[in-house]
């Protein structure tokens, strides 16, 4: 006899964990399946974890959640060849009892989620890959098949939280292949380093953290960003660019990361650190226009598998947790009302998403991916011009300031033309509004 659950959740990343925890806490019979040897074994994140969404799901998460440092300072840097221009935001208010963001190491966090899920009665099984969705004669999803012997399991509803590849939705015809310009490939390293050095180099106390988001010449004109985050006893450094750009160019992600680590501005920050872990992963960056069908008879899709990622703000895990929670709340409401899990009823999930920051934010930046992909000057010419202009402006060399202004302007116009500059400004406004 095939075992039946109220819900099956595929994947133990932040979206699947949020869904499973929410369902189990409400007393539903839920099974979570994860292909990794343990939760987090297959997962890659920079990573910053945003507390607000997690707090909604597990209000007391700070009691035992293995976070690294709470972030008190955010830096945004535009790198030139040997320089950078940037901005910092630092606030003592982030030193409160309820900090807003933390650096994390995913393997630790995902294991912790597993413990919390078990405590509220959820069943999480690892080393089990879901190979396909099972559908009845009408096409409704009624369960999953796994790579285990006799691995057929049934449920009222299946929540796909299987990450950016979304293989199950694709295999079932619910999603098409993602275009290479809609997906970034990111590589990162965790570098082990003495905590004292982290504190000295970044101007922080024990437990305080700094994160640096990086753009500019390190992506070699490709659409992409880099990052450097402070953990307790390590630094996380990474870089990612669109797959379509990697295909066209001849630079490998690994070479790009090596160049980032050797950049004169970055090198002194990581000097003496030893590589602990290397990982590569994809990030869905197509934004609003790349969102697939989100629900159907007996199924919903959440997190990266639903292409929920706000590349402009480098937010992914919070969208994942929020969408997982909303999918679970939809299931709970239907269960309580005794309604069937058909598309018409699961549409409530889409309504919740539409009313939330997820769809509102992705809609706001709907033109951004297309504009960035088609206008590489934002990742090549402008970082070059801006960092050179800063160098010119801040170098005291007895050239009068008016002459400096004129030479900076001339350099921009020579590179982009007046029409080009005006056009680029309009494009930027369109991309951000
Ligand atoms: P995932 O975390 O990818 O989890 C999917 C899970 O499903 C995995 O555990 C996988 O093993 C499992 N799975 C897949 N297929 C199957 C199957 N068939 N059967 C069983 N299990 C399966 N976000 C942030 O908020 N802050 C950051 O700083 C940040 N930095 C990032 C840095 C990098 C380099 C990358 C790659 C991403 C970063 N993100 C960041 C994005 C964030 O990691 C994702 O948005 C988030 O992990 C999505 O969660 P998810 O649960 O949807 O998917």
From TrEMBL:
GO molecular function: FAD binding; oxidoreductase activity
Coiled-coil residue windows: none
Domain FAD-binding: 5-324
Pfam (any one): ETF-QO_FixC_C
Residue stretches making up the FixC-like C-terminal domain: 368-433
Top-level taxon of origin: Bacteria
Protein biosynthesis as UniProt keyword: no
Cofactor: FAD
Record bears the keyword Oxidoreductase: yes
Keywords: FAD, Flavoprotein, Oxidoreductase
Family under the similarity heading: Belongs to the ETF-QO/FixC family.
Annotated function: Could be required for the formation of a functional nitrogenase Fe protein. Probably accepts electrons from FixA/FixB and reduces a quinone.
Protein name as catalogued: Protein FixC
């Amino acid at each position: 006899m095939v075992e039946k659950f109220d819900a099956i959740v595929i994947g133990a990343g932040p979206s699947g964990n949020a869904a499973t925890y929410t369902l189990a806490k409400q007393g539903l019979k839920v099974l979570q399946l994860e292909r990794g040897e343990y939760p987090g074994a297959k997962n890659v994140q920079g990573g910053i974890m945003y507390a607000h969404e997690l707090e909604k799901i597990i209000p007391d998460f700070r009691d035992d959640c293995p976070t690294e440092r709470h972030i008190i300072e955010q830096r945004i840097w535009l790198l030139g060849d040997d320089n950078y221009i940037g901005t910092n935001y630092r606030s003592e208010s982030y030193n409160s009892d309820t900090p807003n963001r933390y650096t994390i190491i995913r393997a630790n966090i995902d294991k912790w989620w597993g413990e919390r899920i078990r405590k509220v009665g959820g069943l999480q099984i690892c080393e089990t890959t879901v190979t396909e969705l099972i559908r009845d004669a009408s096409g409704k999803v009624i369960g999953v098949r796994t790579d285990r012997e006799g691995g057929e399991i049934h449920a009222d509803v299946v929540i796909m939280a299987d990450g950016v590849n979304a293989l199950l939705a694709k295999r079932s015809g619910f999603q098409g292949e993602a275009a290479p310009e809609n997906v970034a490939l990111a590589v990162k390293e965790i570098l082990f380093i003495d905590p004292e050095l982290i504190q000295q180099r970044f101007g922080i106390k024990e437990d305080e953290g700094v994160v640096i988001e990086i753009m500019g010449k390190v992506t070699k004109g490709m659409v992409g960003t880099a990052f450097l985050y402070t953990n307790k006893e390590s630094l996380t450094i990474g870089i990612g660019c669109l797959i379509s750009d990697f295909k066209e160019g001849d630079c490998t992600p690994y070479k790009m990361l090596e160049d980032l680590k050797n950049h004169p501005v970055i090198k002194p920050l990581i000097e003496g650190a030893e590589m602990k872990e290397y990982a590569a992963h994809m990030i869905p960056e197509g934004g609003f226009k790349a969102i697939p069908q989100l629900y159907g008879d007996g199924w919903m899709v959440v997190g990266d598998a639903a292409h929920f990622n706000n590349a402009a703000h480098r937010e992914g895990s919070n969208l994942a947790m929020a969408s997982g929670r909303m999918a679970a709340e939809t299931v709970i409401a239907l269960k309580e009302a005794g309604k069937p899990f058909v598309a018409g009823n699961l549409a409530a999930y889409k309504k919740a998403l539409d009313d939330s920051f997820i769809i509102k934010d992705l809609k706001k930046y709907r033109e951004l991916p297309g504009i960035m992909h088609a206008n590489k000057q934002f990742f090549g010419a402008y970082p070059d011009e801006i960092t050179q202009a800063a160098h010119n402006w801040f170098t005291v060399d007895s050239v009068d300031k008016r002459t400096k202004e004129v030479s900076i302007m001339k350099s921009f116009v020579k590179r982009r033309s007046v029409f080009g500059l005006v056009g680029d400004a309009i494009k930027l406004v369109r991309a951000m509004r």
